[in-house]
Every structure is written in structure tokens, then in C-alpha cells.
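sorry for the late reply, my laptop died twice this morning and i had to redo everyting from scratch. anyway the thing you sent over, i finally got around to it. pasting the sequence first so we're on the same page, its 317 residues, then the predicted structure underneath. double check i copied it right bc i was rushing
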Amino acid sequence: MGADRVFAYGAAAGLLGDLLLGDPRRGHPVAVFGRAAGAVERVLWRDHRGRGALHTAVCAGGAVALGAAAARAVRSSPTGSVLLTGAATWAVVGGTSLAREAGAIGRALESGDVEAARARLPHLCGRDPQALDADGIARAVVESVAENTSDAVVGALVWGALAGVPGLLGFRAVNTLDAMVGHRSPRYRRYGWASARLDDVAGWPGARLTAVLATVAGGDPRGAVRAWRADAGRHPSPNAGPVEASFAGALGVRLGGTLSYGGRVEHRPVLNGPGRAVQVGDVERAVRLSRRVSWLALGTCAAAKLLCNRLTKGRTS
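ok and here's the structure:
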């Protein structure tokens, strides 16, 4: 069995596993990695870019090496390779947990329980919930669903198609490190620089594919393209910009504006200015769009890997 079929079957099994099982409540592999990365940080931390780069290399490199060793151990068994790819995919994607958290907040808002929605919001993103009303919470959820569709699903599938199990584990490790140390706090401004920049590089292809698929799968392709072209470059994140702009255009809503993180207020550009303000019902619409994008990403990545494999064989025959 070729690497293209191993990826297609394994990734499909992993996405189905995520859909049916979600994330385990205890002992999640990403949480285990986070604890290990935290232990490395406690040993290495200095307010210095070089130390941060070493931290990134040790943690991300370790994840890639683990994936490579596991793949090598089962390479003679097609069934084992598919099972390993499925397990790795299930471990690194988080589409079901994303949908569940967003849905729980949406239901709280629909019932008028803004306090319950505020209490739940930190499970999904780092906004200051007390500074948000119901519509502000809904907007934060839609933005988080858009960005995490790329970070938690599509980006992993892209790197799985490119580099197999090491790519799956490596991408998730880089994304997790960025969440842990990549933000611009006084402690991590220098130490987290390497993790943040590596995450920008690793997330680039997945973010563009997410934006393309949101344009295809959304209700307003022209609006998605227009918002992407006009507003993506104005976003401070090179990867969140295309994703959030395309989601905004596809859903016909307006994202961006004033945000509050950890007591720090940011004034971000508005994405899809002609759109209307986000409403509570848009949370479920964003979740449905995220699911469509995720499955389309699987098909796209599997087809691209199959095509590349056939082209490679054609050149060598």
C-alpha cells in the first residue's frame, strides 16, 4: 500500500474517531506534550531568544523524531501504518472539541444566560469574557472557530499529507508551543519568539487552504473572496487574517474590532466591513462551516497526495 493510501485511510479514520469520540478527558497526548514542554521550559528559561529557540527545537524536534520512529517501526505493515496514521490524526485534530465548546457557548447565549457563556469562553479562547456582552461573545466564538479550524484541523492534515505521522505530530507540537510561549507577554516576548515565528511558517499553507475551502463551502463565495483580498493583510496575524476574513465574508458578518486579552486592549481592523454584526445564531453557522471545511480539507489533501505520488511514479518509470 502506497503512502498516499496510508494517509487517506488513516486520516479519514482519525477524523471519524475525533467525530465519534472527541478528546479524552484525561491523558490527552497534546496535554502530555504540554506538560513535557513546560518541564523543558523550567530548565531552559531565560529572557533570551537563543534559549527560546533551543526550547522550540527540543520540543518540536522531539515530537517529529517520535513520529518518525513510530512510522519506521510499522513501515513494513500497511495495516499498522494506517492504524498509526489514524491514531496520530485523532490525537492532533480537535474539530469535535472545538464544535462542542462553541455550541455550548451558543446554547447559553440563546437561552439568555450570558454569565454561563462568559464562564465557558476561556475554554475556547483567551479573550476577557467580562468585557463582552452577548454579541461580543458570539463574535469571539466565530473568530475562534475560524482560526482553530485552520490550527486544529486543516493545518495538521496538510502536514500529514506532506510528511506523514512526523508531520502530524510536528505541526501540533509547533502550534501548542505557540499557544504556550508565543504570545507577547513580558516573560515570552523574547523566549517565545522562535515558537511564534515557526508557527507562522508551519501554519501558512493550512491557513490558505482553509480560506479557499471556506470560500467554496460558505454561503457567499464572492463575499468571502472580496473580504479575503481586502482585509486579510490588515490583520496582525499572517495566518489568522485570511482565515477570519474568508469566514467573515462567507457568513456575511463583520469580524475584528476592539479586543481585550489579559487586561490588554487591542484595536484590530474590521474584517468584511460591509457585513452585519455577529449575532448569536451565527455561532452554529460558523460551526457547520468549520465542519464542511474540515472534511473538504481531508479530501483535498488526500487527492493532492495521490496526484503527487502518481506524477512521481510517472517520472521514474
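The chain has a mean pLDDT of 93.
thats about all i looked at so far, will dig more tmrw
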